[in-house]
Amino acid sequence: MGLSSTIEPSAIWLQFRKYKVVPLNPQLRGRIGELERKLRRGVPACPDSQRRDFYDVQLTDGWAYIHVYHDARMVYLVSYFSSTSFNSIPIGSAFENEPRREC
Length: 103
Known about the structure:
This protein has a 6-stranded mixed sheet with strand order 1-3-4-5-6-2, with helices on one face. 10% of the residues lie in helices and 34% in strands. It has 1 helix and 6 strands, in the order ββαββββ. The protein has one helix at residues 32-41; strands at residues 12-14, 20-23, 43-47, 54-59, 62-69, 74-82. The longest helix has 10 residues, at 32-41. The chain has one domain (12-85): 2-Layer Sandwich (YaeB-like fold), CATH 3.30.2310.20. The chain is mainly β.
């Protein structure tokens, strides 16, 4: 039928039911709960074309930049961007000078 998808063409589906989610910066702890729930249910994600196993995941009020470390069954929350400042400097980011893009 003529159903359209809300997932962007370059997006992929991530689902990790038994992976632990860990913030790289203590300031990001408040974002772990929602990210964990979404990853367990499954969520569309935008792969980073420059880094393997790094993704942008949309949360309720912003975007999480994550790294999936399969060997340890861990997802690291690298940084968080509020919806209103997605293209500005991320909170707690190790990649402050990196350009950001949307899917």
